[in-house]
Amino acid sequence: MTGTNPRTSALELIETVVDPGSWRRWDEPVDITTDDPDYRADLERARERTGLDESVITGEGRIEGRRVAIVACEFRFLAGSIGVASGERLVRAVERATAEQLPLLAVPASGGTRMQEGTVAFLQMVKVAAAITDHKAAGLPYLVHLRHPTTGGVLASWGSLGHVTAAEPGALIGFLGPRVHEALYGEEFPPGVQVAENLMAHGLVDAVLPPERLSEVAARVLRVLCGDAAAVANGAVPAAEPSGPAAGTGLEAGADPGRGGPSAEESIRRSRRGERPGVRDLLRAAAEDVSPLSGTGAGEHDPGLLLALARVGGTPCVVLGHDRAARHGDAAADGPGGGQPLGPAGLRTARRGMRIAAELGLPLLTVVDTAGAALSREAEEGGLAGEIARCLADMVTLPAPTLCLLLGQGAGGAALALLPADRVLAARHAWLSPLPPEGASAILYRTTERAYEIADRQGVRSADLLAHGIVDRIVEEEPEDAAAQGTTYDSFLARLGDTLGAELAALRAQDQDERLAARRARHRRIGLPR
Predict the structure, then answer these.
(1) What average pLDDT does range 240-263 have in this prediction?
(2) C-alpha closest to that of 271 among 191, 368, 350, 178
(3) CA distances (Å), 361 to each of 226, 229, 364, 469, 522, in order?
(4) Residues 343-375: pLDDT tens digits?
(5) Cβ proximity of 109 and 145 under 8 Å
(6) Cα(103)–Cα(141) distance, integer angstroms
(7) Count of alpha carbons within 13 angstroms of residue 154, beta-carbon side
(8) Could you give the 3-state DSSP secondary structure of residue 63?
(9) Which one in 203, 252, 401, 405 has a CA-CA gap of 20 to 30 Å to 353?
(10) Cβ(297)–Cβ(354) under 8 Å?
(11) Where are the beta strands (DSSP E) in 6-64?
(12) For residue 128, which of 91, 161, 103 has the smallest C-alpha distance?
């Protein structure tokens, strides 16, 4: 049970997830072969109680018309434990899903390894994990919904390998079950730790999701992870032709911006306004099927970095961006502000998004809007500089199409880490600098009073970035007097959405080898005579 709700059987859950009448079992009958009379009796009682021959059910159904392979545990069958027969059934189902190019949904509820079968059962986790790794390597989505309870070797293998992972409300989720912990250590496990909600807060699961919402959320996630890719392959949706972005929405690379446009001071002040839209506003205005993910998936969560799956302009993509909404207070117009400083956990979360994009061949959209990286003992000891370096390496070599939007502030390594994309766009009042201008002024003049003068000389404005080939395109914003009314950001966000959609579609249609070569070349020539 979770809370006060009676446990739903695996088959009942599957029937609520798939389209009516679409479920088809894949399972071959399993014989009882053990010579242990007590274990044989346990198996016979489990079969009589559940009407199943093993703890695992596999098959396929349709979710909103899409074929999806499903593997699930029946907890009432010997606590959903995995032995040789159930492990083999799991592996064959995963291999079939891979061969038939189907996304895979796993719904475990298990105490882990079946103790009656010992070490050979324990080793089933290896081949299950290997099969799932092959499935993901084939570019196929793997979704996990952890039911109550999921512990032991099941959590430590196929329960923890999802591209996206959810858990039932209040579910017990942990490696070492509470009964085992108490028996080994003579005390109860600390309360509130092995609970779905706590694991979400720590970036181990992406959502706490009641079973009745599983179908809806799985459908939304799959529309992004494999949505129109299948439709394009089948000819249902025409593939986008490589082309330049739509005209009339900004200034293109190659144009001569001269020294016109807003000053560095004006852009920096406007980028720091509390009401300026951030990545969440952009997703609300310009995206569909948005599914936020929580943290690294490995026990870390940084509120300064938003990671989500979404469709932008109809193109499915992975979105990661600095989150202005995570600020501790209002941004100041005359000093750095507007967001949570980004720490190493945020950069590791970003790298998780890059891995998802690479594994599934999805475009990656990065949104830069940061006052800078975290400056703290924790950040240094957590490897901040190394994570910036690894983000740069991942971004430069990522096989997936990449698009960067400079939306607001772009201070230091936290901004640079998300920058090296195939194409880089900038809002008119976005800017990019090695440090917050106040920091640069302090280094050069031992005062912050000359910040805007330094920023102007450093060439931080979007127009300067365009002239140096750092930015490919500027998206215009509203004039100062119109923006001051606080009612015009909708039109700006709409323009951004149209532009991003066109750019993503064009990038996705390009030849991968040519695109990667062009990406490396653009960054190789920055700073050289053009």
Answers:
(1) 52
(2) 368
(3) 9, 9, 9, 27, 22
(4) 999 999 999 999 999 999 999 999 999 999 998
(5) no
(6) 5
(7) 35
(8) strand
(9) 252
(10) no
(11) 24-25, 56-63
(12) 91
In angstroms, the CA 399 to CA 420 distance is 13
Map tokens 């992972």 to a residue. 165
Residue in this structure with the two tokens 């240094």, named with its chain if needed: 380
Q: What is the pLDDT of residues 176-185, one digit of tens each?
A: 877 777 788 8
- Give the C-alpha separation, 418 to 369, whole Å: 10
Quote the tokens at residue 406: 């400079």
Average pLDDT, rounded, for the chain: 89
Over residues 478-516, the pLDDT tens digits come to: 776 555 555 568 889 999 999 999 999 999 999 999 999
Inter-residue contact 504 to 401 (CB < 8 Å): yes
- 3-state helix/strand/coil string of 332-350: CCCCCCCCCCECHHHHHHH
Q: At what angle do helices 437-445 and 451-458 cross, to 10 degrees?
A: 100
Question: In the structure encoding, which two tokens stand for residue 417, read together?
Answer: 């880490």
Three-class DSSP labels, 214-242: HHHHHHHHHHHHCHHHHHHHCCCCCCCCC
Summarised one tens digit per residue, pLDDT across range 187-221 is: 888 888 899 999 999 999 999 999 999 999 999 99
Tokens 């690894």, located at residue = 390
């390597």: which residue's tokens? Answer: 137
Looking up tokens 């000359």 gives: 450
Which of 168, 148, 261 is closest to 210 using CA atoms?
Answer: 168
CA–CA distance, 189 with 176 (Å, rounded to integer): 9
* C-alpha angle 364-367-370 in degrees, rounded to nearest 5: 145
Residue 123 makes CB contacts below 8 A (sequence gap 6+) with none
Q: At residue 126, what is the residue type? A: V
How would you classify the pairing of strands 164-167 and 142-146?
A: parallel
- What are 485's two structure tokens? 């009314």
pLDDT of residue 254: 46
Q: Give the orientation angle of helix 84-99 with respect to helix 124-137, to 10 degrees.
A: 10
Nearest Cα to Cα of residue 167 among 104, 80, 107: 107
Please name the residue that has the structure tokens 């291999």.
95
Q: What is the 3-state secondary structure (H, E, C) of 428-460?
A: CCCECECCCHHHHHHHHHCCCCCHHHHHHHHCC
- pTM of the model as a whole: 0.90
Number of neighbours of residue 185 by Cβ within 10 angstroms: 10
Amino acid at the residue 243 = S
